[in-house]
Specification:
This protein is α+β, with helices and mostly antiparallel strands and 386 residues long. The protein is built from 12 helices and 8 strands.
Length: 386
Amino acid sequence: MTLIDFPAPSAGSQFDDLRREVREFLAREMADHTPQMRARSWNGYDRDFSRKIAEMGWVGMTLPKDYGGHGRSPLERYVVMEEMLGAGAPVAAHWIADRQSAPLILAKGTEAQKRDILPRVAAGTCSFCIGMSEPDSGSDLAATRTTATPENGGFRVNGTKLWTTYAHEADYMILFCRTDKPTADKTDRHGGMSQFLVDLKHTKGITIRPVIDMAGEHHFNEVIFDNVLLEGDALIGTLGGGWDQVMSELAFERSGPERFLSSFALIEQMIALVRQDPTEQQEIEVGRLAAHLMVLRRMSRSVAGLLDRGENPLLQATIVKDLGAIYEQDVPRLARSLLSRPASPASADSYNAVLAQTVLSVPCFSLRGGTREILRGIIARGLGLR
C-alpha cells in the first residue's frame, strides 16, 4: 500500500499581524451580521463585500503583481481564508474565482486571457462558477457528455451542467467538456477532454435554471448549452488536455478550510450554551470535536504548504475533502445529542435558528467538490488498492 504523506506545515506565527488585521476588518464590516447570516458560511454572495476585501489586498493574493495580484504565499492566503470562514463572511462573489479559476488561468491560460481576467479577479469584480458536474454522472467527470465540436475556428457546445453554484450570478464559467469522442480503449476514460472560458453574460444559447436546496435557498443551478458557439480563443490550455488540468484545479477546490468550517457557526453557538453549565459528557464530546478540527486544520495547512512548493497534492486534498465533509455533517448530530433544543428557522433564539440552517444545509456538503463515492475511489487508487 502506498503512503500518502502530509508534510508538517510551517508554524504560521509569522502571519500573526495579518491574522489580526483580518479580524479587525471583519469585526468592523460584519458588526450587524446575525448568527443566522454567518451560518450560511461561504454561500453568502455580496459583490460589495468582495470588492472591500479586494481593496484590502486579500483577493488574488497569490497572483503575480504583473497581473494585478499581490505576489503573496498560499500560506498567507490560507490565513485570510480561515479568518473569513470562521467569521461566516459572505465571500461567494469572489471565492471560486480566487480559489481555483484564477490559478488555472494563470497556469494554463493564454496571455490575453491572463491580462483580461486576472486583474479583475484581484479587484473582486469578476465572479466565476464551475462547469463540471452533469446529470446522471455527477462527480464522475470521466462520464462527462457535454461536447464542444470544432466549427469554423471555434467550438459548438451542447450539453448540461448541474449543481453549478452561483451560475446565475457569475460572470464566467470554466467549462469542462468533451472535444473528441472516447477512444476504443475502454481503460482510457480521460482522453479527449478540454476546458473553456465561457462568458455567461454575453454568450447566446445558455439557459440557467435554479435548483432550490432544502433550506429554500438558490445557489445551485442547472446550466444548459444549446448550440452555443464559442470562439477559438475560449480554449484554456491545450485541446484534449482538460483531464490533467481539471485534476490540478481540484487540488485547490478540495483542500481549503471551507471543507471543514461550513458548520463552524453552529459549533460556536453550541459551545456558548454548553459552557454555561457543562456536564462531563458534554466536555468530552466538545473536546473530541475540537481535536478533530485541529487535525483537519493541520492536514489542510499541509496541503497549502505543498501548493506553496509548487506540488500537486491531489490525493491529500481529496482526503481533506472527504474527512471534512464527514466532520461538517456530524456537527448537527452532535449538537442535538448534547442539547435538547429545537431546530427552528424562524426562531428568535440564535442557536435554534443556526441549528435549523445547518441541518438543512449539510446534505449538500458531501456533494460539492465531489461525492464521497468518487473521492474514495480516488483515494483507493492513490493507495494502490485499485
